[in-house]
Design brief:
single chain, about 280 residues, alpha/beta, about 35% helix, 10 helices, 9-stranded mixed β-sheet, about 25% strand
Length: about 280
């Protein structure tokens, strides 16, 4: 059972922070939950948010301003951490884009990392924990995220469409096998066999599909003043893959917006209402 660390009244509901012993990770992991008002005795739709590089389970809940809309829409919000903490792997704190704060939502296979860096399995584990302990409806689960977390949300949804009914992203790393962030992470966690990388690349996963896994559509927002856009994100590659698969995609490009939470907070309401419509 998760340990409740703190809770805070918020827009008529409650913002909570938890710690749980993760079987997938082999270490304690933290996550945050927003419960909207009137959640008792009901089964509500639940939306998982995967954060980006350097973030924690607190980042989205503090910066995005999502609770107001979640309270209005009757949505449970869940945000996990972005990596194990305290694994003690040599080199895990040497750089900001690999190791601590940068789990990339993969299950590592390289021996140095494979014991604890299993964020893909942890998200699936957390989904089951949330459904077992919170008033969440197992038939109405969505997922979204930002940057590294946008990559995570897209790949989790594409690999497990039976577990997630809706998916969206802010500025996702949409083709990580093609960009420096993804190549560094995948090479470190998964080794040199690039065939193993493709199972964690949203563009590669979509390119292998001959039907639309999310006929209700996928929503992506991208800022055009994002300094990472050209080198790291490749939304156009995912857009092309969706077109080939017949997957409906709304890719909105916004002049003047960068990569951070000012951008996310500007459009998070649209994402929550998008998911609420699809989750019912």
């Amino acid at each position: 059972m998760p340990e409740l660390l703190s809770e805070h009244a918020c827009f008529g509901g409650v913002q909570r922070f938890y710690r749980v012993d993760s079987a997938a990770i082999g270490l304690p992991m933290r996550f945050s939950v927003y419960l909207p008002p009137g959640a008792e005795g009901k089964r509500l739709p639940v939306l998982f948010y995967l954060a980006g590089l350097t973030c924690t389970e607190e980042t989205f809940m503090i910066k995005a301003g999502a609770q107001r809309v979640a309270a209005q829409e009757g949505l449970i919000l869940v945000a996990p951490d972005t990596s194990p903490r305290g694994a003690g792997v040599p080199g895990e704190t040497d750089s900001w884009d690999f190791g601590v704060g940068a789990g990339f939502y993969v299950d590592a296979t390289e021996p140095q990392w494979s014991r604890h860096y299993r964020m893909h399995s942890h998200i699936l584990e957390l989904r089951e924990l949330v459904l077992a302990t919170l008033p969440a409806d197992p038939a109405r689960v969505g997922i979204f995220g930002h940057s590294m977390g946008g990559h995570g949300a897209l790949t989790m949804a594409l690999r497990h469409p039976g577990l997630f009914r809706s998916v969206s992203a802010f500025a996702p790393i949409a083709a990580p096998t093609r960009c420096p962030w993804g190549q560094k992470a995948f090479g470190g966690y998964l080794g040199s066999d690039q065939a193993a990388w493709r199972q964690y690349d949203a563009t590669e996963l979509m390119s292998a599909m001959d039907t639309a896994p999310f006929p209700g559509g996928i929503l992506i927002d991208q800022g055009l003043a994002d300094k990472f856009l050209a080198e790291q994100l490749y939304p156009e590659a995912f857009e092309e893959a969706c077109a080939r698969a017949g997957q409906p995609l709304t890719l909105r490009r916004h002049a003047g917006y960068d990569h951070g939470y000012y951008f996310i907070s500007s459009f998070v309401e649209d994402h929550l209402r998008f998911h609420r419509r699809l989750l019912g």
